[in-house]
Design goal:
Strand content: under 5%
Organism: Streptomyces olindensis
Distance between the termini: 50 Å
Radius of gyration: 22 Å
Number of domains: 1
Largest sheet: 2 strands, antiparallel
Structural class: mainly alpha
Keywords: Membrane, Transmembrane, Transmembrane helix
Protein name: DoxX family protein
Main location: membrane
Shape: globular
Subcellular location: Membrane
Number of helices: 6
Number of strands: 2
Strand order of the largest sheet: 1-2
Length: about 160
């Protein structure tokens, strides 16, 4: 059954829900659509976490020549490089922890705004599109997982 079509229920249902009478058109349930959306969002989070951990944080944390050169040009040196790498790695891990997902996406988004500004101001916009492109899925995750922020606040209040 495609997403935009309805089905005719003529076969008895095997679920515990009451079966629809034969010939009654039943639209696709919002629950199934919501489940697919949650799975897609989770997949996006995993892809972003892998990107931030492997492609972005790892070169900084191992002191790869390309990362070191960029941070030296900025005047931030190895301390800045390791700090940004650690923040990216922490954000990548937090994207996978349910209660931290929204906050992690917001924090990584703020880091991307900073990266965009640096790309424009220091590197003449050479790779300025990358942080802007990453802002879109991060904003989606922050918004979609915003309900977890209340859970995080409850945990923090309970711990205090």
């Amino acid at each position: 059954m495609s997403e935009n079509t309805a089905s005719v229920s003529a076969v008895p249902s095997t679920s515990s829900a009451p079966a629809a009478p034969a010939g009654v058109v039943i639209a696709e349930s919002a629950t199934a659509r919501g489940r697919r959306a949650r799975i897609a969002l989770r997949g996006l989070q995993i892809l972003l976490a892998l990107f931030y951990a492997v492609a972005s944080a790892l070169p900084k944390l191992i002191g790869h020549a390309s990362a070191a050169e960029s941070f030296d040009e900025l005047g931030w040196g190895s301390a800045g490089m390791y700090t940004i790498g650690a923040l990216e790695l922490a954000g990548a891990v937090a994207l996978l922890i349910p209660v931290l997902q929204s906050v992690a996406a917001m924090a990584l988004g703020a880091l991307m705004v900073g990266a965009f500004i640096v790309q424009i101001a220091v590197f003449a916009g050479q790779y300025a599109a990358t942080p802007l492109i990453l802002l879109v899925p991060l904003a989606l995750i922050a918004w979609a997982r915003r309900g977890h922020n209340a859970d995080l606040l409850r945990l923090l209040r309970r711990a205090a």
